[in-house]
Specification:
Elements (H helix, E strand, L loop, with lengths): L1 E4 L9 H5 L4 E3 L5 E3 L9 H10 L5 E4 L2
The structure holds iron/sulfur cluster.
């Protein structure tokens, strides 16, 4: 499972990094970014939650 952030859509609210800091962080350009590796098992539920909560649907989750 992997996560991707649409940086053009991100409104820099910081919610994803709050919900799932194992996967999302705020990048140097101010928008969110996701780790570019497989999401650890113990972070998957939080990553899905972050995608659901993103106010502009900027997070895409690719399940295995
Ligand atoms: S929750 Fe969505 S809009 Fe907010 S920082 Fe994360 S990707 Fe950007």
């Amino acid at each position: 499972m992997r996560a991707f952030v649409d940086k053009d859509a991100c409104i820099v609210c910081g919610l994803c990094a709050d919900i799932c800091p194992e996967v999302f962080k705020m990048d140097d350009d101010g928008t969110a970014t996701a780790i570019d590796t497989e999401i650890p098992d113990d972070a998957k539920d939080a990553a899905r939650e972050a995608a659901e909560q993103c106010p502009v649907d900027a997070i895409r989750i690719e399940e295995d």
